[in-house]
Automatic annotation (TrEMBL):
Residues 88-277 form the ABC transmembrane type-1 domain. InterPro entries: MetI-like (IPR000515), MetI-like_sf (IPR035906). The keyword DNA damage does not apply. GO terms for cellular component: plasma membrane. This is Sugar ABC transporter permease.
Length: 291
């Protein structure tokens, strides 16, 4: 009996008291985030629902959420009345090239600033970061004049070149490279490795999370970019998906189902890429932003 009472006492004393304020705060934060998620998803759900409605139901008041009949005519009309496959190719081609160029140029610049000692490298880094404070709209006219002088209007080069410089990518790679131990570099130098070999065979494999983050975020940004392709492209064959769908939408009038269907088709690839690689994006940002 004495032994049993001692065991019961030990069990009683080892139980942790319930931290009620912490639990309330946790569930309160979850409820707030859930509310914001619903607010953010509500317009997307409305766009998706409207795209599957017959055109006649999109203007009937009062507006209803669910259609009386599931209808994909809006998607058929958008696909049949536009050069959407060609626009998809243009967007994929330019976005992939821009992503690869940003990763290569930003990683090379960051490696030189982080690992190659030279006078004024901190000044160079801060000058690059100053580019984050310059609105992109300010550069539209100078970039357009530059592309026009190079005769790159309505070409792939005209779309790609102004988008391959990213101060944000340089910052992420610089922070990631600063966190890599110097022992790797010293061991490689003792084996006679050149700076280029150290960069390509050691630093780049170690920076895979940062590479994934920059490549995916750049791809999504290039895919969704509307202003610059709209300015530099004049022919229908060179249009990207956002520009092409915008030109198609101008002819729809009040055909809201087709407008919503084109918006879904235009943003779907970027959403798929982000959903598939969201873990890599979070891991790369965590590695690049840590002290």
């Amino acid at each position: 009996m004495a032994t049993q009472s001692i065991q019961n006492t030990n069990v009683t004393t080892t139980r942790r008291p319930l931290n009620l304020p912490r639990q309330v705060g946790k569930w309160g934060a979850f409820a707030i985030l859930l509310i914001f998620a619903v607010i953010w998803l509500l317009p997307i759900a409305w766009v998706l629902d409207t795209s599957f409605k017959p055109e006649g139901e999109t203007t009937i008041l009062p507006l209803t959420w669910l259609s009386s009949a599931f209808n994909i005519q809006a998607y058929i009309s958008v696909l049949s009345s536009s050069d959407l496959p060609r626009w998809y190719f243009n967007s994929v081609f330019t976005s992939v090239i821009i992503s690869a160029a940003v990763v290569l140029l930003a990683s090379m610049a960051s490696f030189s600033i982080s690992r190659i000692p030279f006078k004024g490298r901190s000044v160079v880094f801060w000058l690059i970061l100053c580019g984050l404070m310059i609105p992109g709209q300010v550069l539209l006219v100078p970039l357009f004049s530059l592309m026009q002088s190079f005769q790159m209007i309505d070409t792939y080069w005209g779309i790609i070149l102004p988008q391959i410089f990213s101060p944000f990518a340089v910052f992420i790679f610089k922070q990631f490279f600063d966190g890599i131990p110097h022992e790797y570099e010293e061991a490689a130098r003792m084996d006679g490795a050149s700076p280029w070999r150290i960069y390509w065979q050691i630093w780049m494999p170690l920076a895979r999370p940062a590479i994934a983050t920059i490549a995916i975020s750049t791809f999504v940004a290039a895919w969704n970019n509307f202003i610059w392709p709209f300015l530099v492209v004049t022919g229908t064959d060179m249009m990207t998906v956002p520009v092409g769908l915008a030109t198609v939408q101008t002819s729809y009038g009040i055909r809201y189902a087709q407008i919503m269907a084109s918006a879904i088709l235009g943003g779907l690839p970027a959403v798929i890429v982000f959903v598939i690689f969201q873990r890599q994006i979070v891991a790369g940002l965590a590695g690049g932003l840590k002290d």
